[in-house]
Design goal:
Length: 39
């Protein structure tokens, strides 16, 4: 009946997942690079 509120609810989690998504891979690459140099 209210597809608008449902879409917004789904969009909220999607935006949150997308935001941490880009920084997550960068952090992993940075961490791996630091680990390699440390080794």
């Amino acid at each position: 009946m209210h597809p608008r509120p449902r879409i917004t609810c789904l969009n909220y989690p999607e935006l949150i997942i997308t935001k941490p998504s880009p920084p997550a891979p960068l952090s992993g690459v940075r961490g791996g690079g630091l680990s390699s140099t440390n080794n």
